[in-house]
UniProtKB/TrEMBL annotation:
Signal sequence residues: none
GST N-terminal domain residues: 2-81
Listed GO MF terms: glutathione transferase activity
Designated name of the protein: glutathione transferase
Catalytic activity: RX + glutathione = an S-substituted glutathione + a halide anion + H(+)
Keyword Signal among record annotations: no
Matching Gene3D superfamilies: 1.20.1050.10, Glutaredoxin
InterPro entries linked: Glutathione-S-Trfase_C-like, Glutathione-S-Trfase_C_sf, Glutathione_S-Trfase, Glutathione_S-Trfase_N, GST_C, GST_C_Tau, Omega/Tau-like, Thioredoxin-like_sf
Family indicated by similarity: Belongs to the GST superfamily.
Organism of provenance: Glycine soja (Wild soybean)
Boundaries of every GST C-terminal domain copy: 86-208
Keyword NADP carried by entry: no
Length: 225
C-alpha cells in the first residue's frame, strides 16, 4: 500500500502546483500543514538544502522543488499525462516553466516591492517577461492544448497570486487590453478542475504576501537610512 504525503502551506503557489498535479492524477495524499514561522523537524529533515515547502513524501522518500515534484508525479503515476509526449514539446514546456520561476516570478515580485523611482523600471521588466508568455499562449486555450498540463500548472502563479501582487503593488500587469490571451488563459485556468476546488482564498494570499512585502520594504528603507 503506497503512502503519499505533502508537506505544504495553503497560500503558497509552489504547493498548489503539487496539489493540482496529484488531483489530476487521482492520487490520494495526506496534507501535512507546515508552519513556516516554526518549521517542523520533518520539513528540515526532508528538505535540508532549501528548508522550503512543498516536499512530497512518497513511501517516506522526500522529493523537493515543485517543478521536480511535478515531473516525479508524472513519471510515477502515468494516468492523465502532464508533460507533452513529444520530446521537443516536453523540452519547450520545461524551458518555459523555468522561465516563469527564474524570470517572471522574480520580475513581478520585484515590481511589487519596488517603490519611488525604481517602480517604473521594475514594472517594465515584469511586463517584458509577461509579453514573452503572451506570445506562447496565443491561439491556445491552455499551454497544454485543450487540457491543463505541466506548463499550465507551473504558470498557475499568474492567476490568483499575480493578481494579488498587482493589487498590493498598486500596478496593473495582466489586464485584458495589454495581454488578452494570458488574461483569458488565467480566467479559464481558475474555472478548471481541480484548480477551482483547490485554491486558497484571495484574503489569505493578500495576508500572506503583505507580510513579506512589508518586510522587504522595511529592509530596503533601513539600508537607505
Ligand atoms: N523553488 C521552490 C520554491 C519554494 C518556496 O519558495 N517555498 C516557500 C513557500 S512559497 C517557503 O517554503 N518559504 C520558506 C522559507 O523561505 O523559509 C519550489 O518551486 O518548490
Amino acid at each position: 500500500m503506497e503512502e503519499v504525503k505533502l508537506i505544504a502551506t495553503h497560500q503558497s503557489f509552489p504547493c498548489a502546483r503539487v496539489e493540482w498535479a496529484l488531483r489530476i492524477k487521482g492520487v490520494e495524499y495526506e496534507y501535512l500543514k507546515e508552519d513556516l514561522a516554526n518549521k517542523s523537524s520533518l520539513l528540515l529533515q526532508s528538505n535540508p538544502v532549501h528548508k522550503k515547502v512543498p516536499v512530497l513524501l512518497h513511501n517516506n522518500k522526500p522529493i523537493a522543488e515543485s517543478l521536480v515534484i511535478l515531473e516525479y508525479i508524472d513519471e510515477t503515476w502515468k494516468k492523465n499525462p502532464l508533460l507533452p509526449l513529444d520530446p521537443y514539446e516536453r523540452a519547450q514546456a520545461r524551458f518555459w516553466a523555468r522561465f516563469i520561476d527564474e524570470k517572471c516570478v522574480l520580475a513581478v515580485w520585484g515590481a511589487t516591492v519596488a517603490q519611488g523611482e525604481e517602480k517604473e523600471k521594475a514594472v517594465g521588466a515584469a511586463l517584458e517577461s509577461l509579453a514573452l508568455l503572451e506570445k506562447e499562449i496565443q491561439g491556445k486555450k491552455y499551454f497544454g492544448g485543450e487540457k491543463i498540463g505541466y506548463l499550465d500548472i507551473a504558470a498557475g502563479c499568474m492567476s490568483l497570486w499575480f493578481s494579488v501582487l498587482e493589487e498590493l503593488g498598486e500596478m496593473e500587469l495582466l489586464n485584458a487590453e495589454r495581454f488578452p490571451s494570458l488574461h483569458e488563459w488565467s480566467q479559464n485556468f481558475l474555472q478548471t478542475s481541480p484548480v477551482k476546488d483547490c485554491i486558497p482564498s484571495r484574503e489569505s494570499v493578500v495576508e500572506y504576501f503583505s507580510f513579506g512585502i512589508n518586510y522587504v520594504r522595511s529592509l530596503a528603507a533601513s539600508s537607505k537610512s
